[in-house]
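Researcher: I'd like a candidate sequence for this fold, 133 residues long. If you have to choose between options at a position, lean toward the conservative one.
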């Protein structure tokens, strides 16, 4: 049996108008301390996004999502936040905010492969299921 690690994750949401409290899930951030893992995965369905928020600047949204990815990666490219320890970066990324990109509450679980778990969460929480006839 492979080793199990505890992890925390949050869903990344696009919130075009915070006052309306409507959102669309576009990604997941996963932190697994014991596996030295912090990463984010995104799936941006631009057609769905255009129907949800037709006036949204998709280029600006992509820049926000790329900033999250760089902060997860750590180092100079992630700016001042990217230089923080891994756990502090996760805490900063999931802190409540009222901007166009927000995260859900933090959830916990156990996994043996954080990278695979991140992809499974992305599929479950973000991907639009294929239409069935």
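Model: Candidate sequence:
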């Amino acid at each position: 049996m492979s080793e199990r690690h505890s992890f925390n994750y949050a869903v990344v949401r696009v919130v075009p108008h915070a006052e309306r409290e409507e959102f669309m899930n576009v990604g997941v951030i996963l932190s697994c301390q014991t596996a030295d893992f912090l990463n984010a995965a995104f799936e941006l369905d631009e057609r769905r996004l255009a129907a949800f928020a037709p006036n949204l600047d998709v280029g600006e949204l992509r820049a926000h999502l790329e900033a999250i990815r760089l902060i997860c990666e750590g180092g100079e490219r992630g700016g001042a936040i990217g230089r923080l320890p891994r756990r502090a970066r996760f805490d900063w990324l999931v802190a409540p905010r009222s901007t166009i990109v927000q995260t859900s509450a933090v959830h916990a679980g156990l996994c043996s492969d954080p990278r695979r778990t991140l992809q499974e969460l992305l599929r479950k929480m973000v991907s639009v299921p294929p239409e069935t006839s």
